[in-house]
């Protein structure tokens, strides 16, 4: 079994926290990030292992791809962090891909506890 998990997060870990601490980041703001909460990544891996599906590849993400800038805008809107992010300054590099793991969800019978990063931050229900 192979399970590919994208950018995982929790409040004090993940790309958003790294960028928040750094302040000024030399990466393009419009790069797309596919995210999954640490707990959801673990529960997906366990669900796959329980199904005993060997030699298969599965994708783990929350199905709400966000740009780096959108992620940091949500962090700022949440009011949950005392630090303030400055900006992304990059203008080159790949844009990333928008991924969807609906096929994995249907086959495994799994749904994330945190359906999206904004929901995790308490900005959406």
TrEMBL record:
One example GO MF annotation: isomerase activity
SUPFAM superfamilies, alphabetized: NAD(P)-binding Rossmann-fold domains
Keywords: Isomerase, NAD
Gene3D superfamilies named among the record's database cross-references: NAD(P)-binding Rossmann-like Domain
Similarity comment text for this entry: Belongs to the NAD(P)-dependent epimerase/dehydratase family.
PANTHER family the UniProt entry points to: EPIMERASE-RELATED (PTHR43574)
Protein name: NAD-dependent epimerase/dehydratase domain-containing protein
Lineage: Eukaryota, Viridiplantae, Streptophyta, Embryophyta, Tracheophyta
């Amino acid at each position: 079994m192979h399970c590919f998990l994208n950018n995982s997060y929790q409040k004090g870990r993940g790309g958003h926290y790294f960028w928040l601490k750094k302040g000024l980041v030399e990466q393009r703001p419009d790069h797309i990030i596919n995210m999954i909460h640490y707990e959801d990544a673990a529960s997906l891996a366990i669900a796959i292992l329980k199904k005993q599906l060997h030699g298969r590849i599965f994708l783990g993400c929350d199905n709400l791809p966000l740009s780096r800038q959108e992620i940091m805008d949500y962090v700022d809107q949440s009011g949950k962090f005392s630090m303030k992010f400055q900006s992304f300054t990059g203008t080159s590099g790949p844009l990333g891909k928008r991924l969807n793991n609906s096929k994995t969800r249907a086959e495994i019978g799994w749904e994330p506890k945190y359906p999206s990063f904004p929901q995790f931050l308490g900005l959406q229900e």
